Automatic annotation (TrEMBL):
<dbReference type="InterPro" id="IPR024087">
    <property type="entry name" value="Creatininase-like_sf"/>
</dbReference>
<dbReference type="InterPro" id="IPR003785">
    <property type="entry name" value="Creatininase/forma_Hydrolase"/>
</dbReference>
<dbReference type="GO" id="GO:0016811">
    <property type="term" value="F:hydrolase activity, acting on carbon-nitrogen (but not peptide) bonds, in linear amides"/>
</dbReference>
<protein>
    <submittedName>
        <fullName>Creatinine amidohydrolase</fullName>
    </submittedName>
</protein>
<keyword id="KW-0378">Hydrolase</keyword>
<keyword id="KW-0862">Zinc</keyword>
<keyword id="KW-0479">Metal-binding</keyword>
<dbReference type="GO" id="GO:0046872">
    <property type="term" value="F:metal ion binding"/>
</dbReference>
<dbReference type="Pfam" id="PF02633">
    <property type="entry name" value="Creatininase"/>
</dbReference>
<dbReference type="GO" id="GO:0009231">
    <property type="term" value="P:riboflavin biosynthetic process"/>
</dbReference>
<comment type="similarity">
    <text>Belongs to the creatininase superfamily.</text>
</comment>
Length: 244
């Protein structure tokens, strides 16, 4: 199972959010995250962010997209991908379906850096006059990193590092296996990543400093992202200065 089973309270909260005009769609992936984090890490991270957002803001929380564009991780068993064309189509279909049911805006909460196509989906939809957004932005992650006291830069903290390990230690500590304490590996120069894949830069699948991860940092990261989401919500609903 990729995400925890729904509780009765989860179902009630989502039902109450159906009247919201903004929906939140977590988009994760199913790919290797070193020997100590689960294949569903990016989905779990996206779901954690989306659930915290839904608890603090009037949005309709959707179930996640759990398989996406992880082609750069294909060298490791267990990684599963779909094409960028397929992911583009899935997101567009979901947005179209929501509009037909009266939910006019959609926020894609992306948990996987390789889902480049999501930016194109949002750009194209916005050009058509539709209301889509991609969250978190790099600036949101940078602010969260600083607020949480994350030591590793966003460049170095590429995969299964301090940020992802911290969030899982906070929300799903039972899924973090021993070994992250000694798995640090840096590879800041990754200019040929798209051509050569992750295996050209790491033997373990890790690029970052997971040894610095902590549950407290994970909690602070999520709190910062929840606060940052307010600007995105205001932009989509026309309630903030960004919409002027």
């Amino acid at each position: 199972m990729l995400v925890p089973a729904d509780t009765a309270q989860d179902v009630r909260e989502r039902a109450e959010g159906v009247s919201a005009q903004v929906a939140v769609l977590p988009v994760g992936s199913y790919e290797q995250h070193g020997p100590y984090l689960p294949l569903a890490t990016d989905t779990l991270v996206a779901c954690a962010i989306a659930r915290e957002i839904a608890a603090a803001h009037p949005v309709h929380l959707l179930p996640p997209v759990t398989v996406s564009c992880s082609h750069e991780h294909a060298a490791w068993p267990g990684t599963v991908s779909i094409s960028s064309v397929t992911l583009h189509a899935v997101v567009r279909d979901i947005a179209d379906s929501l509009r037909r049911s009266g939910v006019g805006a959609l926020v894609l909460v992306n948990g996987h850096g390789g889902n480049y196509v999501l930016g194109n989906v949002v750009q194209e939809a916005s050009a058509r006059g539709e209301r889509l957004a991609l969250f978190p932005a790099v600036e949101d992650w940078e602010a969260a990193r600083e607020r949480a006291g994350v030591v590793t830069s966003l460049l170095s903290d590429m995969h299964a590092g301090e940020i992802e390990t911290s969030i899982l230690l906070h929300v799903h500590p039972h899924l973090v296996r021993p070994g992250y304490e000694s798995a640090d590996h840096l590879a800041d120069d990754r200019r040929h990543l798209l051509t050569a894949g992750m295996s050209a830069y790491t033997d373990s699948g890790v690029i970052g400093r997971p040894s610095l991860g902590s549950a407290d940092k994970g909690k602070a990261l999520l709190a910062s992202l929840v606060d940052a989401f307010g600007a995105t919500l205001a932009l989509l609903t026309g309630d903030g200065p960004e919409a002027a």
